[in-house]
From TrEMBL:
Domain of life from the UniProt record: Bacteria
Protein name, UniProt field: Neutral/alkaline non-lysosomal ceramidase N-terminal domain-containing protein
């Protein structure tokens, strides 16, 4: 059977490369830097390549917190050089584990340059190996609801509670993660997305190639600082492989959806998970794997799915501090010993003062990549940061068999809907990880809908 590109046969291949950081590597995702001192489970970048006679698509997901666009763009250049795949048809994203090597600058943690080199090399390696593994295949889209693990982390608080804003010194209308103030919670501020979407891929001989899943939940975080772990994303891959009794070539991939305002720190029901390290992430990973496993018998398999991709940039304004704010931030920085800060509002004011000074050096506008893929009856959108559940639900409602992969192709930080920007809260505090104009979410969604219309 021929497998050359000018035939219409559908083929798929998957592969993984180990990206576990060495001990001593910087770990980001927190306000403060940590260094790897213990490896609980190995980290991977996993790649799925799909092709037919007219298109080749790549989806790669790395067990890391965030990656900047420049790093992802370099990866795509190297992938194109080795495989010929068009960069606009390559989607690279992060799981958003907060226990992996630092590839992006977050608050007081810089990128670990040696680790960035490893991550770049291994991502290219995973994609090129997935191309080697291409074989005639079938594919299906599936979904399930797993509502028990998604909790809105933004809350309206009772009268008398003052949600402080460390950037402008004012008061927010919502509080994100009200640690120590659970008794002051009035109600969650927004709806969550319980949907678990996935595509399943088998060889025509019946062997499992890959399952690419998507869930809108932040990391579980049930480990000590300094630990290296893929969090529930890694637990999902292990459990699903066991349930399917798949061979070593099978790649289960869990991607992060629209989870910017969602986590599993349940302040209203704090005792519903065990407290042992890794227990919560294992439960979440297992439940998601079971949901996929039980949905598989009802799947409708496609033998000749259409494949296509659309890619575009949206130019958006950057929210920059005014001169008075910059001057005040510089004065606060001058009197701060950044080595003695902790997790209190006193320290937050100083951390965000530093952010104002750094943000002042940014350009006034930036390009944000938006990408959509058609894979048979399924559509996948790639969002370049941390978007809220509301965004993902809206796109699903309009697009049908669809899911959004977040932190894809760039990291522009949090992109709340305009109403949530007005309410304030941690995700809206102006900094390098929340820097786009108030209406950015709406403009990005509009562009994505335009691209989805092209694919139809």
């Amino acid at each position: 059977m021929t497998t050359i590109m000018n035939e219409t046969i559908f083929r798929a291949g998957a592969a993984a490369a180990d990206i576990t950081p060495t001990l001593g590597t910087l770990i980001n995702g927190d306000f403060f830097p940590h260094r790897a001192n213990h490896v609980h489970d190995r980290l991977f970048v996993r790649a799925l390549v799909l092709e037919n006679g007219s298109a080749r698509l790549v989806i790669a997901v790395a067990d890391t917190c965030v990656m900047p666009r420049a790093l992802m763009d370099r990866m795509k250049v190297h992938i194109h050089a080795q495989t010929g795949i068009d960069p606009g048809s390559i989607l690279i994203s992060c799981t958003h584990t907060h226990a992996g090597g630092s590839a992006g600058d977050i608050f007081l943690t810089p990128p670990d340059t040696a680790y960035c080199t490893l991550l770049e090399e291994k991502t290219v390696e995973a994609v090129t190996e997935a191309c080697v593994q291409l074989q005639p295949a079938i594919i299906a889209y599936g979904s399930a609801n797993v509502p028990q693990h998604v909790v809105c982390r933004r809350y309206f608080m009772k009268d008398g509670y003052v949600p402080e804003n460390p950037v402008d010194g004012g008061t927010d209308a919502v509080k994100t993660n009200p640690i120590g103030a659970a008794g002051q919670i009035l109600q969650p501020a927004a709806q969550t997305d319980p949907g678990l979407g996935f595509i399943a891929v088998k060889s025509v001989k019946g062997n499992w190639i890959s399952v690419l899943a998507n869930y809108s939940l932040h990391y579980a975080g049930d480990w000590e600082n300094g630990t290296v772990t893929a969090d529930y994303f890694g637990a999902f891959t292990r459990h699903l492989g066991d349930m399917l009794q798949a061979d070593g070539g099978f790649q289960a991939i869990m991607s992060n959806g629209t989870s910017g305002d969602v986590n599993i720190w349940d302040f209203l029901h704090p005792d519903r998970y065990p407290t042992a390290h890794f227990a919560k992430s294992d439960i979440i990973g297992r439940d998601l794997a079971e949901a996929v496993f039980h949905a598989i018998p009802a799947l409708q398999w496609e033998t000749a799915p259409a494949l296509a991709a659309e890619y575009s940039d949206v130019r958006l304004k950057v929210r920059k501090p005014d001169p008075d704010s910059i001057a005040a931030a510089r004065r606060l920085m001058a009197e701060t010993d950044y080595g003695t800060l902790s997790y209190d509002m006193h320290s937050m004011r100083r951390i965000f003062a530093r952010e104002q000074v750094l943000l002042a050096g940014f350009p006034d506008e930036m390009d944000c990549p938006v990408q959509v893929m058609r894979i048979g009856h399924c559509r996948i959108g790639a969002l370049p940061g941390e978007f809220f559940a509301q965004t993902g639900l809206y796109l699903k409602q309009l697009s049908g068999r669809y899911f959004s992969i977040g932190l894809a192709n760039a990291n522009v930080g949090y992109v709340p809907p305009a109403l949530e920007m007005d309410r304030g809260g941690y995700e809206t505090w102006r900094c390098r990880n929340s820097l786009l104009e108030r209406n950015a979410e709406n403009r990005i969604v509009d562009r994505m809908l335009q691209l989805l219309q092209k694919l139809s």
